[in-house]
Amino acid sequence: MDFKEVLEHHILDHSFATLATIGGIQFSFTKHLLMLWIGSALLLAIFASLRLFKPRRLQLLLEAIVIYIRDEVVLKALGSHGKKYLHYFLTLFFFILVLNLIGLIPGSATATGNIAVTAALSLCTFFLIHIAGIREQGFGHYVKSIVPSGLPTWLIPLMFPIELLGYLTKTFALSIRLFMNMIAGHIVILAFLGLIFIFGAINPWVGLGTAGLSVAMSLFIYFLELVIVVPLQAFIFTFLTALFVGSAVHPEH
What we know:
Elements: H1 3-11, E1 15-22, E2 25-30, H2 31-52, H3 56-78, H4 82-102, H5 115-137, H6 139-146, H7 156-202, H8 204-249
Antiparallel strand pairs: 1-2
């Protein structure tokens, strides 16, 4: 197996078995699907352990995160309406965080490095924007609020589809941002490790001399991902979702 195959095996999804074929579309049990299940099971186990065993340090850590997201993200973006949707934002943050962390384990895969996964999460945001807007304002008021007030009447039919397209671009940007940031770190790490094989093919001694620097840079990038990129991307996705939903709930802002 050459380095190209190693790179593609780590970055791309891998199918274990085909579960069904409907309408020419194959539904497969893949490595990323397995990571989604493992992430969900871990979340359930962690929060169940809080009720059963009450680990003090873990409880304090999670409480601090929950309070911060509630007070500094959700309530600031949605106001008092945010309490109704807090469970969604907390689930979103912790789910993305766990998937990102699992992806750093050697031999595993980063499900958030799959555009289908990030697109599905973004579609949840897309639907929540409109559901929250209709729920808080009523259908008629929400439809009117999509187009900025004060526009000439003849301009409204033109602006309405443009504003709807804006919601799609927002959710598209969410999916691309998370997908690219999570896959980029793995590619950089594998690229540094690949230098060992590239220079080693030219001259074994040069490859050996490159190994120390390549491994050191790979560990540095890995540390940055673990400490900064992984939690930051989960937070940014949650934060932007809160802003988008808040703009639908409070269009005057």
